[in-house]
Amino acid sequence: MKRVFLIVLDSFGIGEAPDAAEYGDAGSNTLRSCFETGKLRVPNLQKLGLFNIDGICCGEPASRPRGAYGRMREASAGKDTTCGHWEIAGIISQKRMPTYPDGFPTELIQEFERRTGRRVLCNRPASGTQVILDYGQEHEQTGALIVYTSADSVFQIAAHESVIPVSELYEYCKIARALLTGENAVGRVIARPFTGKYPNYKRTSNRHDFSLAPPRPTVLDAIQASGLETIGVGKIFDIFAGRGISRTSRTQGNDDGMAQTIAHAKEDFSGLCFVNLVDFDMVYGHRNNADGYAEALSRFDGQLGELMALMGPDDAIMITADHGCDPGTASTDHSREYVPLLIWGGGIEPVNLGTRPTFADAGETAAALLGVAGNCDGTPLARLILRPGTQDLRSGWETLVREAFAAREKSYSPHSAFAVGAALLSKNGRVFHGCNVENASYSVTCCAERTALFKAVSEGERSFSAIAIAGGKTDCAQSEYCYPCGVCRQALAEFCPPDFPVIVAKSPEDYRVYTLEELLPHAFGPGGKF
């Protein structure tokens, strides 16, 4: 495909995750709370399959959904914006980022005061609107900075724009970001400027996030490295500390975010447009405003219709979220919930994707739709959702070949110095990687193809779409066509049909495709001969 628009409805959860109770979020369901207001009008989301998603117990399912639909469970340890977006882009965070339920350490605050030359007020978890009401007057009188946190891994600094100019506030945030490293490496330092007179203070749209850089490359880096554009809309640039983003558009709320996305849709570009719509979380979820949340979703749905009308045959729209923030519970914090995954475009099959084990499947799928191997923590679903003939088969095979070359890098081949990698694509879209593992006793050695096959079978897979094989001498930069041995051909024949594609490659652009029957014309299958 030419363009993918990946839209994150910030905090739009669709029901408690299995581990929600561990996070204090049992019973959370952001979608249900919005639906129960009676103000939710989302015909476009409904047609795409929102209410057809497994586990959703409200709304009217579409009789014939127009998009692929499913739900994703967060695999990362956390429920905040940073780890949610990082996971969408392919990185599962195994360790929770630090939080400060009792405020930040005294020595940290003292050093921050020393470097900024300003005293700190508050230093405890607080609501963003309540904290400026509680400390705004003292801040205006003294020039002290309002520092607070939340249940998330954030260090937030609030200041009145007439007391501390926005540019100066950003500099203070940079000082905090430089301090907050090691065990205090919070996910985000956030500038929270506000205006107005007490008690009618109002936070402005000049908020700015100073995030940690992702710990390793994401699918954004892979897409950008392939020569395609990666456009960030909203706070995407901030969340990834600019990594993997070729250009960015800052926004003034949801409506402006969608307006800018629609403007990008009118451009002629190739690549990914990654969008965050933060108002659902910041303006409605955290303020327990279920009516406002439902109305904002309804406005988004109308703008979604405008965006859909601009899509060409080689475009796709993906809609998901980064966590929940149920406006119907007593908590004002994020909630550990499943998030939706809706995918629509001219070439997308309306299939049920079920429950995906990680948000990372979204980013990997976006990359795969663009013909790029993300090589991150998720599974690309492109093979499940693309209509026959939509994607050039060669492009799909090139992606699989690239994964075989990546698997080859892990080869253990000290005896032959001949490294082989294999990438086996299952019918449900998962890719299993294998490399050859040699042994001084020749019969103990296992080929890359069987490593991948046995790995897949041991995880319950029984149906496969294709396998790519890449091999060559470890002391030579040039690969060569590497054909499966007779044992591997017979092993594949146990699970794969005669027309199963076997791709042998010198490079991602130079490969040959055979059927299994061509390579093993008289194989034994489970029921006898082919």
Describe the fold and architecture.
The chain is an alpha/beta fold and 530 residues long. Helix content is 31%, strand content 22%. The strands form 4 sheets. An 8-stranded mixed β-sheet has the order 10-9-11-1-12-13-2-14, sandwiched between helices. Strands 3, 4, 5, 6, 7 and 8 form a 6-stranded mixed β-sheet that branches. It has a 5-stranded mixed β-sheet with strand order 16-15-17-18-19. α8 links the parallel β9 (229-233) and β10. α4 (106-116) crosses α6 (166-179) and α10 (279-285) packs antiparallel against α11 (290-309). The radius of gyration is 25 Å and the shape is globular.
Distance between the termini: 36 Å
Shape: globular
Unreliable stretches: none
Profile the largest sheet. Answer: 8 strands, mixed
Number of strands: 21
Average residue pLDDT: 92
Output the strand order for the largest sheet.
10-9-11-1-12-13-2-14
The residue fraction in helices comes out at 25-40%
